[in-house]
Amino acid sequence: MIPALFEVTEVSRDNEVTFSLEARSKNGVPFHFRPGQFNMLYAFGKGEIPISISGKPYTDHTVIHTVQNVGAVSRALTELRPGDSFGLRGPFGRGWPVEKALGGDLLLMAGGLGLAPLRPVIYEVLHSRSSFGRVILLYGARSLERLVFGEELKQWQDGHDLEVFVTLDIADPEWNGHVGVVTSLCRTAAQLIDASNATAFICGPPIMMRFSMRELLGLGVQPARCFVSLERNMQCGVGHCGHCQYGPLFLCKDGPVIDCEGLLPWLKVKEL
Amino acid sequence: MRTADLKKHPFATLFTEGQLEKLLPLARWVEYRPGEALLREGSDCDHFYLLVEGLVSIDLALPGGGSRRLQTEGAGTEIGWSWLFPPYEATFDIRAVEPSKLIALDAAKLRNMMDTDQDFGNRVLKGMLKTFVGRLGQTRLQLLDIHSHRRVDK
Amino acid sequence: MRALAKDNLSLLIQALREEGYEVLGPRMGEGAIIYGPLDSAEELPRGWIEEQEAGRYRLKRDPANRYFAFTLGPQSWKKYLHPPNLCLYKTKKTDQGLEFKSESWHKKQAFLGVRACEMEAILKQDRVFLEQLHPDKPYQERRESVFLVGVNCSRAGGACFCVSTETGPTLKSGDDITLTELEEIFLLEARSARGRAVLGRLPTEEASSHALSEAARQEEHVCRQMGRTLDTEGLAELLKNNLNHPRWKDVGDRCLTCGNCTMVCPTCFCFSVEEMTDLAGLESQRVRQWDSCFSEQFTLTSGNSQRSSAEARYRQWMTHKLATWHDQFDESGCVGCGRCIVWCPVGIDITEEAAVIREKDGASHANS
Predict the structure, then answer these.
(1) Chains touching chain A at 3 or more Cβ pairs under 8 angstroms?
(2) Does the distance separating the beta carbons of A270 and C320 come in below 8 Å?
(3) I want to staple A60 with a disulfide (CB 3.0 to 4.6 A). Which of A30, C168, C182, C317 is the partner?
(4) What pLDDT, on the 0 to 100 scale, is given for residue C362?
(5) What digits encode the pLDDT tens for the residues B103-128?
(6) What's chain A's average pLDDT?
(7) Residue B89 belongs to domain spanning
């Protein structure tokens, strides 16, 4: 599958190692996706990696990816400047089942860059706010410098549509908010909603997701209504290359978003 | 203070109506403004707090001044465990980060009630232990640095 | 059913060539029987058979001097349908940005001598690459143009267990023409319009009832001769329920994680894609190559391998093949060809591993 050619229109820096690239198709084809889906991004001479789509699901002509500089390809992507080209294949995978949260409470839990794949959910919620009950975002970052989307977090916090709780693992002296891992926010959040009827979406580092899931299930969230977005090595995005297998799943096409009910038996096996 | 006030905190779910009635005389509302200290390291720990509204921090005083904020606790959590064992002295500083409303339970009377009513005592301990096990787990994750890509080997 | 004189086998090759096909089939090479271009029946490894056992493959002469008495070499047809090295597309830096270009496949190929298990393997890879939301174009182009001449086995190898996996020894469907080699003649059966067209060009006659009963006897003989058995009853669930079984540690200690089993397996499909740049840095290509779940790099995510132990990697391979393949494709991923057993340098035997787990079903892992 040949990539489509995209051109960077804007680059913004989210933290010292993370950048958001806004881009549009060079041949003017509109781009549509569902929150939680990803694209395979190709950087010339470096390779291709899966990156979640982090922008608004309702803009036809641009697409935003938030990329953390951790390897050769992601570095090349973060070094792109407006006017530069890259290749894009996608969107791939099953996203967040936002429709399951309609009419009920929605709990979003993010760790680090895990907020990027959840941001489109927030946009979608804000777009049709009255269709949802209480919407709570629990976000944990390592430190103030590693926080992403700080401006927006503040906007969301100041508005009345979302209840936002942000916590840092390591407290900076200038930080006057929550300190501790993101799971420490669960109990507070559980008091605000009816956990047994809520839908939960979790995205972040693997250990964070494992513990968050356990915490939420412990507080009464139904496994079938608790979803996580899993990460694995992916080379094709369409279920052919075999790398992203996790038990019976090809995470690229059966995931990356998986419900916890199906996941629980596999979590008991190490190095799966 | 009425039992309905106690029920504003999940700790109340551990007890029977009768036990809640007995708890009433031990309880009073307290409020703290941001920055105000509930407890200071080394001070007498004569209350067990149920945080109903707000946010408090567990701080460690640093040599030479200043302090490091280790963790925060939000609404719905229990604060303080030093009241349970001699010498009943606080081991960390506890401060309000946001305007906080708490139920303060008289520690000496609470210990006494736990000793005389074993069933009640058992329920208090179970509730506290659950909170502390959770907090220990969170502390372990904090130590692990879950955001790091570095493999944490066995 | 038609009968063809043995001496006329070359006419089949000739007919296929006249239809525009490049004929590929078994021939001697690299100390084994491998697949390559065939100009005539003379190039077939006539009169050769192999001795095959766990970790052992030797060629030897067979006085019966049949064309297809051998069974399976290390290669399978996937080397043509899913090439081990393939350029997906080339990228050029231009003034407008980047230019992507891929080449289409235009060759017509005919495979001569597709065994029943190999036919089943091709059908399994069809499910992987074609019966998908996004079919794989390189595989699709090759698969759609290929002409398949099947051959029913007249012998079973020491590691064969296609009777257990119900994938042989007799071809059921999928090929264009099926050959059965008997003492004196070949039986030919066309299974597609293309097959009938080619068969129509050969000097055949109606097969005798004597020949048909010889073929039936031969099939029975091959079934009895199977070198291995695999109890497939409830096997998928058995393995999924035993992911912490101590046998994984045991096999992990023997396994060299060389990946030979995945290279010789006719259904293993995994690949990785690499970026190859020219020296000037102006042109680059995406090259896909077979990869193996036995490689530590295979599951590299954010710098960490998700399966760092040999035991986890062997377990992934075997449970994928025999258990989770059912979840993914509604069937087993094993065709009973036994190549993974023969070409394992330490002779690990998938049928034995499955039997041990069955024998001690429910045992728990000492170190878990």
Answers:
(1) B, C
(2) no
(3) A30
(4) 84
(5) 999 999 999 999 999 999 999 999 99
(6) 95
(7) 3-144
pLDDT tens digits, residue range C12-68? 999 999 999 999 999 999 999 999 999 999 999 999 999 999 999 999 999 999 999
Mutate to test the interface with B, among A144, A187, A215, A217 (most CBs of B within 10 A): A187
Mean pLDDT of B89-102: 96
Q: How many domains in chain B?
A: 1
Last residue of a domain, one of C225, C250, C284: C225
CA distance C99 to A42: 12
Collect all residues of chain C within an 8 Å Cβ-Cβ radius of residue A230.
Answer: none
B29 near B59, Cβ under 8 Å?
no
**Domain presence at residue B128:** yes
Q: Say if residue C56 is in the same domain as residue C10.
A: yes
Q: What CATH number has the domain bearing residue B55? A: 2.60.120.10
In a domain, B150, yes or no: no
- The conformational region for residue B109 under phi > 0 = left, psi -120 to 50 = alpha, else beta, is alpha
The residue type of C262 is T
Sort out which chain A residues have CB atoms less than 8 A from C303's CB and list them: 70-71
Q: Which domain-ending residue is among C194, C225, C256? A: C225
| Domain annotation covers residue B127 | yes
Average pLDDT, chain B: 92
C95, part of any domain: no
Report the chain A residue with the minimal C-alpha distance to residue B53. Answer: A188
CA B151 to chain centroid? 34
The interface predicted TM-score of the complex, written ipTM, equals 0.94
Look at residue B151 in the predicted model and tell me its pLDDT: 54
Give every CB contact of residue B18 below 8 A, 6+ residues apart in sequence.
none
Residues in chain C closer than 8 A to A255 (CB atoms): none
Write down all domains in chain A, each with its CATH number in brackets. Answer: 4-92 (2.40.30.10), 98-229 (3.40.50.80)
Which residue of A239, A245, A269 is in closest CB contact with C243? A269
Question: Taking the CB of residue A96, how many other CB atoms lie within 10 A of it?
Answer: 25
d(CA C143, CA C140): 5
- pLDDT the model gives residue B154: 44
The span from the CA of C351 to the CA of C54, in Å, is 11
